[in-house]
Amino acid sequence: MSFFTDLAHQYIDGEWRTGSGSWDIIDFNPYNGEKLASLTVATRAEVDDAYRAAERAQKSWADVSPYERRGVLERALSVTEGLEDEIVEALIDELGGTRAKAVAEVYMAKEFLRQSMHLALRPGGQILPAAERSRENRLYRVPVGVVAVISPFNFPFLITLKSVAPALALGNAVVVKPNQNTPVVGGGLIARIFEEAGLPAGLLNVLVTDIAEVGDALIEHPVPKVVSFAGSDRVGRHVAAVSAARLKRCVLELSGNSALVVLDDLDEAGLDYAVGAAVYSRYVYQGQVCMAANRILVDRSLEREFTERFVARVRALRTGDPRDPETHIGPVINDFQAEALTNLVDQALAEGATALLHGRTIGNLVEPTILAGLPDDSPLLRQEIFGPVALLLPFDGEDEAVRIVDDTPYGLGGAVHTADAERGVSFARRVETGMFHVNDSTIHDDPMVAFGGEKQSGLGRLNGEATVEAFTTWKWISVQHARPPFSL
């Protein structure tokens, strides 16, 4: 399969189509600038076509045996496994991540497909007591109908499948809008996998477009009942506002400003392990991860030793061609992001920060930077940094660490390192985040565990039972077995 030739199309009602918009989205390799594909954008008319096709197909899909729906997911997993090597290559080309990152993304995507197979059989009902002995109350779990999925560029294959696969398994239809930077691995590829798995036409549709062309049509349209969005908090707030005005349910996975915290009780081995976790948590996929550790907090008693080891480890990271097995850090997604990161570092230095390591920007390659000594009022401490820039912050005692961790509008995740795991759990319970990890990296996902954030990091949860809650609703049916009189 030639991914970037065959899959650079709209996919509506089981047909591969060319968009009817007046301009094209150009899909570039972020490392070498190679043109991978050109896609004419979808218009509002095609948005309507996709939603109407989904609406028609969903009604019969909801009546299909859950075992049959599970079978489609099983075949989708088999198709994915058969294409695994090609998918990895496509992820490297379209995202600019290393091979290790691409392999990890495909591995996790397969795990979510496996979990979705089980979710097809998961929804159950309840029989509840009634005030009258002759009445029976039944509660049924039913699909919401049609789900809109708007996915990001950083883990497009995984994050899109995290919503698409369980939504389909639970009896819904889906319309996907992938990020413009990753229209193939986040859109067309997933359509092809389910097409080959035998999913009936209309149940999965892919629209490659832009707000400049369709405005809010993807959210405003009357058909979708749930919007699953992953991306920035700025866009997420808009999605939430438009959805709320139309009483649509939202699941929002938004920006983060995670902290990795190093407490004062680590021995030599524990400190070295924490350094490794911090390097990984900040610099994996160039730091373009919502869970990445923007801030690294170290107890002042360990600050000097940790800093020396951390700077040495980061200095050894190699930036360059993501296809080179020696490369640790590839390009950021585009030149806009590269310029924004350069400006952020310049701003921090102007505010009085010290660069312990100051990486260069060469095209879309942004070498790692480590900043220390930021003033307490620096905006950089409270915003998401989507790139390879680490902030080192000392603290005195756990209370101050908790205050610093929480001093941000975001509350997605984080990690704490300590010699006492239960001390770590106590610390984790004090901070206001949706997720926190003890003696590990800040970056984790698990198909069984509720994933999501607090504050401006999102609304709702996905994975496991949380996914069932997100993509189904309750329906109450009562049965009166007698014929009691009605009196006014």
Keywords, please?
seven-stranded mixed β-sheet, globular, 16 helices, 488 residues, alpha/beta, six-stranded mixed β-sheet, 24 strands, single chain
What is the count of DSSP helices, taking H or I runs of 4+ residues? 16
Helix content: 25-40%
Strand content: 15-25%
Instruction: Tell me which oligomeric state these chains represent.
Output: single chain
Which structural class should the secondary elements be placed in? alpha/beta
Write up what this structure looks like.
This protein is α/β, with parallel strands linked by helices. It has 16 helices and 24 strands. The longest helix has 21 residues, at 99-119. The mean pLDDT is 97.
Task: Give the helices and strands, then pairings.
Blueprint: H1 3-6, E1 10-12, E2 15-17, E3 24-28, E4 35-40, H2 44-63, H3 66-82, H4 84-95, H5 99-119, E5 126-128, E6 135-143, E7 146-150, H6 156-169, E8 173-177, H7 184-196, E9 204-206, H8 211-214, H9 217-220, E10 226-230, H10 233-245, E11 249-253, E12 258-262, H11 268-283, E13 293-299, H12 303-315, H13 335-350, E14 354-357, E15 361-362, E16 365-366, E17 369-372, E18 389-395, H14 398-406, E19 410-411, E20 414-417, H15 421-430, E21 437-438, E22 454-455, E23 458-459, H16 465-471, E24 472-480
Parallel strand pairs: 7-8, 7-10, 8-9, 10-11, 12-13, 12-20, 13-18, 17-18, 20-21
Antiparallel strand pairs: 1-2, 3-4, 5-6, 6-24, 11-23, 14-17, 15-16, 19-22
Helix pairs in contact: 3-5, 4-5, 5-6, 6-7, 11-12
